[in-house]
Amino acid sequence: MDGAAISALRAEISFLEGETAFDGWAVQCGGKIGLVVMTSWRVVYVDFDRRPCAMPIAKIHRLRIETPTKVELLAWHQRLALEFASASQCAAFLNVLRQDGAWQAEVLDAPDRGAA
Predict the structure, then answer these.
(1) Average pLDDT along the chain
(2) Could you tell me if residue 55 is inside a domain?
């Protein structure tokens, strides 16, 4: 995804008062290309259909690491399955997520990858 496309998607995200965006990554979610942005208290995903999905970090109760490039976040009745272009992008996302003070989710690694 080029810089103009990323900027266009980022412009579609409505940030709340006092919310700060930290970083964003191009991802696939449900077969659609989109952008996931980590903010000071939410994970926000938006695709080119302009349908955002936001999960408060404190409400994410489970993180499933499927492969080095695929993760699934579960919160309430929401499920967000993200596929990153590279393992390093996925690792960067996970590192930022885990550093949040509200992070308390159970982490499940794929059976063939070992423990988290």
Answers:
(1) 86
(2) yes
